[in-house]
Amino acid sequence: MKRGVHISLWFIVLAAGVVLAACGGAAPGSQAERESGGGMSLSDALSTDIEGYARAFDVARAWQFPADHGPHPDYKLEWWYVTGNLVDAAGGDWGYQVTIFRNAIAPPSGEEAAPDSASAAASEPGAAWASRQLYIAHVALTDVAGGRYRSEERVLRGGGGLAGAATDRMHVWAGPVSMTSNETGLDTLRIQAPVQDLFLDLTLTAQKPIVLQGEEGFSPKSDEPGNASWYYALTRFSAAGTVRQIGTGAAEAVAMSGTGWLDREWSTSLLGRTQTGWDWFSLQLDDGRDLMYFQLREREDVPFVDASLVLVDGTRGLLDAREVALEVLSEWTSPHSGATYPAAWRLRHAGLGLDLMIEPLLADQEFQASVRYWEGAVRVSGSHTGRGYVELTGY
Amino acid sequence: MALSPLLFRSSLRHLASHPWQFVLSVVGVAVGVAVVVAIDLANVSAENSFRESSEIVAGRATHRIQGPSAVGLPDSVIAHLVRRGPAQGLDVPMTPIVEGWVRPRRAPEVTLQVLGVDPLLEQAFRPYASEIAREGNSGDAGQKAAAYGLADFLGGEPVVLLSSETATRLELAPGDTFRVAAGGVEEVLTLARAVDAGDNLVIMDISRAQQVLGMQGRLSRIDLILPDGGGAGAGGGPDGAAAHLAQMLPPGAVLERSSARTETLAQMTRAFSLNLTALSLLALIVGMFLTYNTMSFSVVQRYALIGRLRAVGVRRREVLSMILSEALVVGLIGTTLGLVFGVVLGEGLVTLVSQTINDLYYSVSVSKLTIHPLTLAKGIGLGLGATLVAAWVPARAAAGVTATSLLKRSSVEDRLRGRLPFLTALGCLLLVAGGVLLWASGRGIVVAYAGIFMLIMGWALLAPALTTAIVVGLRPAMSAAGGVVGRMAAGSVRAHLSRTAVAIAALSIAVSSVLGVGIMVGSFRTTVVTWLQGALQADIYVQPVGNGFRTGQSAIRADVLAALVQAPGVEAAFVIRHAEVLWEGTPVHLAAVEFGPHSATTLALKTGSAEVLVPRLQSEDVALVSEPFAYRHGTAPGDTLRLATPSGHVLIPIVGIYHDYASDQGTIMMDRTRYARLFGDTAASGLAVFVAPTGASGQAAASADIDAVMALMQSRAGPLQNLVIRSNRELRTYSMEVFDRTFTVTKVLQLLAVIVAFIGILSALMALQLERAREYGVLRASGMTGRQLGRFVSWECGLMGLVSGLLALPLGGALAMALIFVINRRSFGWTLQVDVSSGIFLEGLVVAVVASLLAGILPARALRRQRAVDALREGV
Q1: What's the alpha-carbon Rg for chain A, to the nearest Å?
Q2: Among A108, B164, B772, B841, which is least packed, fewest CB within 10 Å?
Q3: Which range among A162-176, B403-417, B465-479 shows the weakest confidence by mean pLDDT?
Q4: What's the pLDDT tens digit per position in B352-365?
Q5: CA distances from B874 to B309, B660, B775, B871 (A)
Q6: Could you report the per-residue pLDDT of B166-208, keeping only the tens digit for each?
Q7: Helix H or strand E encompassing B556
């Protein structure tokens, strides 16, 4: 909370931080470093520089799939966010996070016909290199039995075939990190992502249909109009695939199976100036229901919250986020950054009879790159059991 | 070598009483050292500048992926590697590079190296290039600079970074725009920021670089950082990153160490540098003779004194030490002055040397002289070493003086005469050994030069015997022409052989080197002129503006080419493509030409006939290689070249060798159509145009017709691309300009060697005349007038010059043959036609005589003014 001032620009700073890291500046993350580095003025500039971009307002949107699986270059920010829990053949628990962010570093100009929008063209010789889009991959793999958390960031331009996204299905890539759906929809999604010495190769199979989060996919993030995103999800995939040591053959790959959860969001401005960060929960309960809950922490006010419950049949259950009570049970201080994060929660909803204990599978799942946050696999116990992922920013 | 105070004072007094002698020998050493230092500085500075700029450009890259040909790599390769590499175990930093050269309009003489990068992949490689990703700081860099950020670069805007020095030189501030031309096509660029990078570097985003350089869809190379050098070598171990990489590369692409390229280029100038160094050593050798002369002189002058010193108990060792110490003083002062003068001279020579390197080899801009400690050490070592070696014989002679033998001058001469057979035999031996070395030197240029130096030394040792013979032969003529004075002069030269022979040897070496190099350059020139006459048959030659040797970099735009070929008045036009191809992993030059009826004349074939070979070249994938190529790589008709093409390796048999003096690196020649099909490269580097004659049929086109077509071509191409359109004569003139520029350094060195020799003869004559002042006094006293004495001295000097000149003729001829048939062949693989005009020999003689006469003026004048009584009073 005390570090909050600049973290309210979390996503914007994500881009700023990348740029800062790119010039070999201070390792982004700490507030002091941001203030001393040249990136601060940039983040200031970027925070106000939303002119020329589309924004999400509370108006009905005609959702079009598969086109909406592709990029929305009119908006400044966008992400394809996959998390999930896996079990290896020996019964060891694993968690994975594969995220590709798209970040426009300049508003789309009239004549620029989004060069990164067609995958076929982008990977052909002579693909246009000019691009004002950055694609940033964040990949993390939690090996619970081995007690090891791996993470890696890659920043690429949306030109030259290095990174981009297709419009005819979900096919997005940032260098070697890629997500590729089957041709028509989201029945399957192939995830390929190297992270340090390991290579994650998963095929996700949808267990539920796409669900529009918020109000028909409009997801406000503060009371201020325009601070919102377009948000859809596919909350439950089954996952099967391998994790292998890079440089070894398929024979040495470790088979994995488990679940996956996809979040898709795009927006131009998300957070109000008084917001300091968020706590985000995506929980897959063993009874087949999936719970999404987030709170955007306010500096001097009650948090801005939202939640959704996706039932076994894929429909949304009724859930008023304001009735959810979240209690922090313990904290963990990162030995890397010195930041203190919540490390266990009790989440209750009386009406639904939920009384959940949420604990990280591994304490240290802090993602440290151009931005620093905690994102990790969690275990759910209490009234219901399950697995999930929690994201903590602004600490 | 501590001297007793007595000897020290004695030395000092001798030096003080013969200041001219001292000064001249210092100057001789100084000039010799200066020339060696200057050439070394120029060579080292040029190479250092090249290496430094290569290192700056290579950054932290350890390896690079190079395309198979001038076409470079398809730019999809980088995406393929970045996206698929990690799964294959190849997760290493890699970045695409688009590279080329542009010239800023405001300073067209400056060549800027374009470095097109992806700022995001760039970060691990070059800190200055990843500066692009740094946003301008509105605080201190100014509003304008802050206006250009990463988005502008990535978005393909024409914004660039320049190195600070370059920005200052071009008088550009952030926000300023400037025009550049690449291969004659202009672009307007905006300076975003000046950064701390290598000089003459312009950094831009890859998207813009492709456009500026006309390289859409292509990369020049991919830079990589492989862990631990990527395994054992560029090939890598089976588990190395390099091995994984090799499997992912497109056909024909190669992985090589980043330094390998620099090394290859740096090696190109080796022969050139070595030849310059050898020539500079010649100046030092002449300087050595001078020192030897002076030192032996000062010993002779002091025989009586040394005898007395020995009588009062001074030991042999001490006398030896005294003379060597004096030499050391001369050497120290001369060397110090030589170092200073060498640096000054180096400043001038480096411009000439780098000009030649730019003309012939690669782009280098030497902004500062690299004064390497090793260069100075070499200068000091050679300066002091040469002086001491030269002083050793006189010092030994001095030490041999005994107390009882108060030697007279005549007995010194007797001694020399006694040793004459020995010296002559040694000289002959050296000549034979030198000849054998030259003959057997194989490919060793250093050995060949050692042979040449042995020839020179051998000839110098023959000088006393030959001088005697020549003087004896000339005496009747001298007597006839100069009467008593003439006969006396002849006798004097012979009688004072111990001094005169050394001076004569020094002058003849200098003159012979002028002769030898002159004949070589003249022959070379004639050869090139003859060759150009055959090779240039077309009326008009067209090429994009660019650097001569880098023709593969720029091409005539396809639309411009079409417009030119179709211009009215054009009878026939033939395209040539210059490209760099990879042969066994080594970049080599390939000329793809369109053969025509003129080819029988333009192809100067060394083996085979055009009637047979041209149809073969057009119908099969076969090639000719140039003579330097065949020599350098040891290839001959019947051998097969394995060349990398975009579709894999091809085997091209060599069917013939042709003469080519355009490149000492060697060239492969192929038919353009066949080349284009193999390498997928249809670009045109040049165009040869035959103009249709408007007059009577069968006649060649008139120059007016040619001018008209040239003007028409210029007007057609002008708006689209800046091309160099030259007539046959203009191209010939230009080629000879480049040729002459190449040998400017050589000429400067020759001039310096003559200066050293002139100083040598001056000092020798002055010492000789002044030493004999007593003798002259006797002559004056016995009735000789001052005028007659002056004439006597002039005759003597003239005779010495004539002897030097005569001695220089055979040595000069031998040097020329050694340079033409051994050095040039060994260094460059060229066959030169020998072209010797009798004029050049006459010039050599005249130079020798005039130099001697000039050197004699000062002593002659001094003697003319001297009164007999004073002269008699002079002496030791």
Answers
A1: 20
A2: B164
A3: B403-417
A4: 888 877 777 777 77
A5: 21, 65, 10, 5
A6: 899 899 999 899 999 887 778 899 999 888 887 788 999 999 9
A7: none
CA angle A21, A24, A26 (to 5 degrees): 70
Q: What is the pLDDT of residues B357-400, one digit of tens each?
A: 777 777 777 767 888 888 888 889 888 888 888 888 888 878 87
Closest residue in B to A125 (Cα–Cα): B76
Q: Which of A106, A129, A162 sits opposite B151 (nearest CB)?
A: A106
Q: Give the residue from B675, B688, B673 showing the smallest Cα distance to B70.
A: B675
More confident residue, A243 or B236: A243
| A123: confidence class by pLDDT, cuts 50, 70, 90 | very low
Q: How many CA atoms lie within 13 A of B611 on its CB side?
A: 0
Which of B98, B130, B134 would best serve as a mutation to test chain A binding (most A beta carbons within 10 A)?
B134
**Eight-state DSSP code of residue B435:** H
Determine the residue of chain B that is closest to A19 in CA distance: B133
Q: Which two tokens stand for residue B793?
A: 């001295």
pLDDT at B222: 93
Q: Which residue has the tokens 């090589």?
A: B256
Question: Among B210-224, B264-278, B329-343, B437-451, whose mean pLDDT is lowest?
Answer: B264-278
Tell me how far apart the alpha carbons of residues B465 and B500 are, in angstroms, rounded to a whole number. Answer: 12
**Dihedral angle of Cα A240, A243, A246, A252, to the nearest 10 degrees:** -100
Task: Write the Ramachandran bin of B218: left for phi over 0, alpha for psi from -120 to 50, otherwise beta.
Answer: beta
> What span, in angstroms and rounded, lies between the C-alpha atoms of B112 and B200?
5
Per DSSP bridges, beta strands A177-181 and A171-174 are antiparallel
Q: Of residues B285 and B226, which shows the higher confidence score?
A: B226
The minimum CA-CA distance between A282 and chain B, rounded to whole Å, is 29
> How large is the ipTM?
0.85
Cβ-contact B596, B618 below 8 angstroms? no
Ordered structural domains, chain A, with CATH: 4-392 (2.40.370.10)
Give the separation between CA B65 and CA B92, rounded to whole angstroms: 13
Q: Of the ranges A103-117, A198-212, B585-599, B641-655, which one carries the lowest mean pLDDT score?
A: A103-117
Res A118: pLDDT: 40
- Measured distance CA(B39)–CA(B32) in Å, rounded: 11
Segment (H or E) for A333: strand A325-333
Burial class (CB in 10 A: 0-12, 13-18, 19+), B228: exposed
CA distance A44 to chain B (A): 12
Task: Give residue-wise pLDDT tens across range B796-852.
Answer: 888 888 999 999 999 999 999 988 888 888 777 888 888 888 888 888 888 888 888
pLDDT (tens digit, 9 = 90+) per residue, A71-83? 998 898 999 999 9
Residues of A within 8 A of B130 (CB-CB) are: 22-24
DSSP A249-290: -GGGPEEEEEEEEEEEEEESB---TTEEEEEEEEEEETTS-E
Name the band, by pLDDT with cuts 50, 70 and 90, for residue B313. Answer: confident
| Distant-in-sequence contacts of A26-34, Cβ < 8 A, 24+ apart | A27/A368, A28/A369, A28/A370, A28/A371, A28/A372, A29/A337, A29/A368, A29/A371, A29/A372, A30/A337, A31/A3, A31/A5, A31/A6, A31/A7, A34/A6
Q: How many CB atoms sit inside 10 A of residue A6's CB?
A: 19
d(CA B794, CA A231): 107
Q: How far apart are CA B426 and CA B463, in angstroms?
A: 12
The token pair at A282 is 């995506």
The residue among B60, B222, B98 whose CA lies nearest residue A24 is: B60
The better pLDDT of the pair B513, B219 is held by B219
Name the token pair of A146.
């081995």
Our CA-based measurement puts residue B702 at a distance from the nearest CA of chain A, in whole angstroms, of 46
